[in-house]
Specification:
- The chain is flat.
- The chain contains 5 helices and no strands.
- The chain has 2 domains: 1-44; 47-91, no CATH class.
- It starts with a helix and ends in a 12-residue tail after the last helix.
- With 126 residues, the chain is mainly α.
- Residues 96-126 are annotated as: Disordered.
- Keywords: Membrane, Transmembrane, Transmembrane helix.
- The chain crosses the membrane at residues 22-40.
Length: 126
């Protein structure tokens, strides 16, 4: 490895460190804003964070975030999704048809001698 490669490696690590630091500062600032809004909104008559998430956030099936975050609700949701998604794929909804109905019938006794071998190709000499 040349000295240029080592310099670039150190510079890349330094820039990654700076980038992660900047992202963490932005995340902490956003968290502080949400926290301040969380406490100030009810006193100002504004909608709460829960109401904003309910209106603007992801679809929780008509439930508020307080109803979704309860451990029992999470467990029920996960089990219903796992059971609905996996078991229906693994176990068919109808019984499979009889397996022996698709198999060919065996040859009757003595008929095996009458069956010719594969015909020879015309371009091959006997």
């Amino acid at each position: 490895m040349s000295w240029l490669g080592l310099v670039l490696l150190v510079l890349g690590a330094y820039l990654a460190y700076k980038l992660v630091g900047a992202l963490l500062k932005i995340a902490m600032f956003a968290l502080a804003l949400v926290g301040a809004y969380w406490f100030a909104a009810p006193h100002m008559g504004w909608p709460t964070v829960s109401e904003l998430v309910y209106v603007l956030g992801p679809d929780f099936g008509g439930k508020r975030i307080e109803e979704v975050v309860q451990p029992s609700a999470i467990a029920d949701e996960v089990t219903s999704r796992v059971v609905d998604g996996v078991v229906e794929r693994v176990l068919p909804s109808r019984a499979p048809e009889a397996a022996d109905a698709t198999l060919p019938e065996p040859l009757p006794e003595g008929a095996a001698d009458e069956v010719d071998a594969l015909p020879e190709r015309a371009d091959e000499a006997p």
